[in-house]
Amino acid sequence: MIETKDATLTKTQKNRILEFVVKYGPPPSDFQWTEKEQEESLSYSTSKRPYRVSILTHRPTNYYCIFGAHSIKISPGHSAKVESFSHEDRWEKKESTCGKWLIVVKKEVEAPDLWAAIAQERILPTAASAAVDNRHFTPEERSLIHAKLDGIKAYLLDGQDFTTEQAETVEREFAYLRESSKRLGRKDWLNNLLGGVVGLAIALALDPQKAKGLLGLAGSAFQSLWDVAQSLLQ
Fold first, then answer.
1. Does an H or E element contain 86, and which?
2. Cα separation of 85 and 100, whole Å?
3. How many CA atoms lie within 13 A of 27 on its CB side?
4. Which of 61, 159, 56 has the alpha carbon at shortest distance from 110?
5. How far is CA 232 from the centre of its chain?
6. Tell me, what's the pLDDT at 131?
7. Among candidate residues 53, 65, 70, the one with its CA nearest the CA of residue 5
8. Distance between CA atoms of 35 and 87, rounded to whole angstroms?
9. Residue 84: which of 103, 64, 104 has the closest Cα?
10. Rounded CA gap, 217 and 209, in Å?
11. DSSP letter string, 104-126
12. CB 105 within 8 A of CB 26
């Protein structure tokens, strides 16, 4: 029977990872160290042997970083849900990979759950999928659209400390929505509105409450516009 070799991290190595957590990741209290046994092989051999390894887990999400003897495995990865890097024996490489993993974890944790927001704020998504009328807007409707867009933009900017680049993104998106209302039919424009609102929530990394409020306000504003347009047809 092959003896299991201890490849767990030392106290100083764990302390080094704590520095990375403080610098890049969510709060240290969200993480937990555990151990497990796994089989690995050296780069010059196909035979495997068992090792005892250390695992750093982000408890709220169950995301993890496994420090193998000759590898490191992370979830989420940079381009896939799970990524493994074999034959990584140098501690510096493991440090670097863990640091990048922590940045991804923090990004995932702070990202708004837009699917949940859309599920709760159904007015705009439902209207965008159900609308069949693609007539162009009247001048009166366009004036109403521009006023509503100003209100939505004011809500988006209220209390937010955006960077210059983010503020320019907001201005550019709302200018496009105003301009496109002159040339697109109402169904096409409505889909543009939905895409633009969701895109802004992602690009600006809005918190879930702000993202939900943005979708809700856009939906309510459009419903008001649609009700007016429908009354003009009767």
1. strand 83-86
2. 13
3. 3
4. 61
5. 41
6. 59
7. 53
8. 19
9. 64
10. 12
11. HHHHHHHS--HHHHHHH--HHHH
12. yes
Residue that has been written with the tokens 């990375």 in this structure: 20
Asked if residue 162 has pLDDT above 80, the reply is yes
Query: Region 37-55: what's the mean pLDDT?
Result: 87
> Smallest Cα–Cα separation from 37: which of 4, 11, 14?
4
- The single residue listed with the structure tokens 């046994």 is 37
**Structure tokens given for 28:** 């240290």
CA distance to 36, 60, 174, 234, per residue, from 82 (Å): 18, 17, 37, 56
Cβ neighbors of 153 (< 8 A, separation 6 or more) are: 170, 174
Instruction: Please name the residues in contact with 5: beta carbons below 8 A apart, sequence gap of 6 or more.
Output: 49, 50, 51, 52, 69
Q: What is the DSSP string of 135-155?
A: PBPPHHHHHHHHHHHHHHHHH
DSSP string, 17-81: HHHHHHHHSS-GGGEEEEEEEEEE--TT-S--EEEEEEEEEETTTTEEEEE-SSEEEEES-SSSS
Q: Which region, left, alpha or beta, applies to residue 214 given φ > 0 means left and ψ of -120 to 50 means alpha?
A: alpha
Measured between alpha carbons, how far is 212 from 198 in angstroms, rounded to an integer?
10
CA 77 to chain centre: 14
- Of the listed ranges 57-61, 120-124, 138-142, 185-189, the least confidently predicted one is 120-124
| Count of Cβ atoms closer than 10 Å to residue 69 Cβ | 20
Q: Which residues of 188-213 are buried (b: 16+ CB within 10 A; e: fewer)?
A: ebbebbbebbbebbeebebebebbbb
> Nearest to residue 42, comparing CAs of 8, 5, 87?
87
